Amino acid sequence: PRATMVNGKLKTKGNWNKVGVTIEQGASIGAGAVCIAPLRIGSWALIGAGAVVTKDVLPYALVMGNPAQQVGWVGRYGFQLKEISENVYQCPASEEKFLFAQGKLSELRNA
After folding, report:
1. What's the whole-model pTM score?
2. What angle do CA 108, 51, 95 make, to 5 degrees?
């Protein structure tokens, strides 16, 4: 890359820190979305087309916009989850249930 330091000298390979975006299992990123590293996109999260992601995305989160904001939750089938009771969500396609507690969404087993 052609960039200079404060003293006007060209930067070298040693002046750059490599960072990346970690994309966990099943996450989907819409066309034209921009992810500004470093950040993590949680499993089964869905990023809307054209979104600008500037911070970590929780598993199962649905985010969109510039900057990206969470607008809901999605299941593994990609459908938006419906709240069926307080802090309990269900996927309309698979009927899997999820519990929102302590700031994160977790799948309810045998529910």
Report:
1. 0.84
2. 20
